[in-house]
Request: fold
Amino acid sequence: MRRVLILGGTAEARALAAELAADPDMRVVSSLAGRVTDPRLPAGRVRMGGFGGPDGLAAWLAAERIDAMVDATHPFAARMTASAAEAAARTGVPLLILRRPGWREGPGDVWQRVASLPEAAARLHGMARQHGPARVFLTTGRRSLPIFTGLAGVWLLARSVDPPEPPVPDNVHVLLDRGPYTVEGELALIREHRLDVLVTKDSGGRMTTAKLVAARELGLPVIMVDRPPLPTGVRTVETVGAAVTWVGG
Ligand code: NAP
Reply:
């Protein structure tokens, strides 16, 4: 019996859990942060909530006698990824990072890449100062909203899975949705709200690409926030199949 921990919260993590849970020789535990009110649950055992940093995770790995760990968290869950790398180094539990590829700019795209959310906010501030009030499609998650709300001349359509912490300022319209989205739907949304620019993290994957296709069709500029760097020295794969092979090996 091989005991595998999947650090989850993504579609890839659920797909991996489904594949591994179907194998009678695997005992799979998926871990979720517990942030989303009504998460999509993976197959197999599920545990919720933080471990208490690298120390807590290392202790949990030992107590549960985990043989292998796959970090299949979202590309922007940098703290969890760093914690997993540290706990793996300390305990000797093999770690694999499963990370979907980032998005690539193609013909017709008008993207500006920035290194961080505050840098994205600074770009918006600059745009509003230069060209007048900007109506922004913000898809960077509810917890990032405070970084953007104080910008003069900026109105935000903020789309998130769960509502942001109140109070929500007057210049913000919250749209609760979790996708997947269609190009038609995204085009309609951009037109209806007369949006001038899209701000997104480089999450990658297919679930949320419709907004990028819609932006391309309408010539809408995109501010693309780059991913945080991966920890060094940890094996990384891009597909669920490659992760299944690694776990089995
Ligand atoms: P984060 O900033 O890297 O993590 C903050 C803390 O939350 C971690 O230190 C850890 O607490 C706990 N945590 C995070 N992921 C966990 C997991 N899978 N299982 C148990 N504890 C976890 O992460 P985040 O950006 O808040 O993301 C939280 C979760 O949402 C992740 O699982 C991620 O896959 C998912 N998600 C994130 C995004 C995003 O844009 N960031 C988007 C979609 C889904 P301890 O230190 O106490 O262990």
Notes: The first strand starts at residue 2 and ends at 7. Residues 7-10, 31-33, 35, 50-53, 56-57, 73-74, 76-80, 83, 141, 201 surround NAP (CB under 6 Å).
